[in-house]
Amino acid sequence: MGGEMAVERSTSGGARRTRGEIIREVVLVVGLYVAYSATRLAASGSWDVAKSHARGILDVERWLRIDIEHALNTATAQHTWLEVATSYWYQSMHYLVTPTVLVVLFFRRPLLYRPARTALLGATFLALFGYFFFPTAPPRLLGQYVDTVSESSVYGWWPSAAEQAASGAGSVTNQVAAMPSMHVGWAVWVSVVLAYLLRRRWAKVAVWGYAATTTAIVVLTGNHWVLDAVAGAALVLGCWWFAGHRYGLWAPRAQVDAELDDLVGEVVPDTRRLAATNDDGLALASTVDSPPPSDPEVEAPRA
């Protein structure tokens, strides 16, 4: 399997997908996402418990000296352009980049698609346990932080917190599903995919800017604690590690080279046998006696 991954990584084309494969994957991915969304909503805990968990996380961050949410959120709220920019990123990139990468993998990198899909869906499913058993309020709901996404809603398509409450939209979203942050988790998933596909070292490093930017934005907007982001990243990386080993994605280079040598070794003998057959044919042809020269005294028959 490691050899297959190496071969697939070096080619630019993908296998032709059948209609049945496409339908199966769409049903699987969309079905699981719908189930995830419904279960995530059902996992809503009480406000008191969620706020208690949030304060507990903040206490741990203060002990670790990483409680940077309030300072960053306050600084963001002082600049309208920054509020709008971070809100657009928060509301759109999460839902555009991840599905796009998944679709491209499905059609162009089928061997990488399998472990990538497994890692993504596995992490998303496991995140539900956090929402069920550890409902956590985001910073913006504690009263000491600014809901910058809500404040900048006039510049976008998303409703403000007041509009959500008036329309009842708040009842169809889980407001206390902060731990772990799957905004960060999905961004890390994308960065792993791109880092695996790209060859140049600087490019492999650069693609992690997407995950880093998303992490900063979920904190700047007051939607997640730093530890929410750490948990989301760790969850996805753990699922990537498992899926990578399951599908041979992380096979050592020596093992990959050995498997490629075996693959080449199966082809070369056949080529040699074909060459030997051709040589034997030439040898047999060389043993056939040449025809005797024609007798000059014998005239050719007249037409």
UniProtKB/TrEMBL annotation:
Domain Inositolphosphotransferase Aur1/Ipt1 span(s) in chain numbering: 56-241
Subcellular location: Membrane
Chain intervals for the UniProt region annotation (Disordered): 279-303
Predominant subcellular localization, coarse grouping: membrane
Residues that span the membrane, as ranges: 26-43, 88-107, 119-137, 177-198, 205-220
Entry membrane topology: Multi-pass membrane protein
Pfam families recorded: PAP2_3
Protein name: Inositolphosphotransferase Aur1/Ipt1 domain-containing protein
Organism: Cellulomonas gelida
Lineage, top ranks: Bacteria, Bacillati, Actinomycetota, Actinomycetes, Micrococcales
